[in-house]
Amino acid sequence: MKWSEICIHTTNEAIEPISNILDEIGASGLVIEDPLDLVKERDTFFGEVYELNPNEYPQEGVYIKAYLPAGDRLDEVVERIKQDVTNLKNYAIDIGKNHVTSREINEEDWANAWKKYYKPIHISDKVTIIPTWEEYTPISSDEIIIELDPGMAFGTGTHPTTILSIRALEKYIKKADVVIDVGSGSGVLSIASSLLGAGNVYAYDLDDVAVKSTKVNAELNKLDKQIEAKQNNLLNQVNMKADVIVSNILAEIIIQFVDDAWQTLEFGGLFIMSGIIQTKEQIVKDKLEQQGFEILEVNMLEDWISITARKV
């Protein structure tokens, strides 16, 4: 089988929205090539964690690559991607060059090439994410292992926003908490919530591909009974009460459902949000405070921000 590799030259800020665009089109095996990865200091606990070739990276910005079955309508798909990415400017998102290219590759080359980007990643002292094909021996008896198939939807655990989210969940989740994951993607935050002690977890995503991916990964981690994944637009028509709402999504989207999050949370409940580029931190904080939330904590990793707020 032949596959088409779609490559978008863009900015770090646009990674998440463009990833969502590619997910909605049905792309598989998402890869992000950021030149900062070539100079980033990494833990050497896993040995050679990444196998990176500097010649494959842009001098500025990032490459986002995804894979689609080759077909006669490829030109139409590429044009749709270009237009959808261009439309992100309406949300004040810097899309950079927005240069989109495509090339045809064999299935075997695709299947092996993108896997080199995904190795076990140590999120915190307690949580480790491993791709399904990697063997890994836990370093302690209480280590939490999240197993993922990263080829199905955005959310492999390697992005700073995901790391920030999981670290906040590790700090604040209490036993038997009811958790809602808004924009579940691959389901990694739902799985982390459940493994950290949450009782019931509800995973919502507008994209059907993400919902299916969450279900697959929940089953992979033997959590399909604890995690309920369904298609839903943010918190629209969600009538339950939650102890924790977690959302790794764009700042522009977060501010759209702050009021719904307030209504859904129990008093004292927590709203953990990430996916916020540093320049958008203040607009999110302003919206939270206007609604009545108390901001407990703001953390940063690279250019990304996570905020934990409490309903008081």
The separation of the N and C termini measures 56 Å
CATH structural fold name of the largest domain: Rossmann fold
Percent helix: 25-40%
Q: What gyration radius follows from the Cα positions, in whole Å?
A: 19 Å
SS-based class: alpha/beta
Q: Tally the beta strands.
A: 14
> What's the overall average pLDDT, rounded?
84
H and E order: EHEEHEHEEEHEHEHEEHHEHEE
**Relative strand content:** 25-35%
The helix count comes to 9
* Broad shape: globular
Largest sheet: 7 strands, mixed
Q: Do you know the CATH architecture of the largest domain?
A: 3-Layer(aba) Sandwich
Number of domains: 2
Please identify the top-level CATH class of the largest domain. Alpha Beta
The CATH homologous superfamily of the largest domain = Vaccinia Virus protein VP39
pLDDT < 50 runs, ≥5 residues: 38-52
Structure description:
This protein has 9 helices and 14 strands. Helix content is 28%, strand content 30%. Helix 1 (15-25) runs antiparallel to helix 2 (74-87) and helix 4 packs parallel to helix 5. The protein has 312 residues and is of the alpha/beta class. Strands 10-9-8-11-12-14-13 form a 7-stranded mixed β-sheet, with helices on both faces. It has a 4-stranded antiparallel β-sheet with strand order 2-3-1-4. The chain is globular, with a radius of gyration of 19 Å.
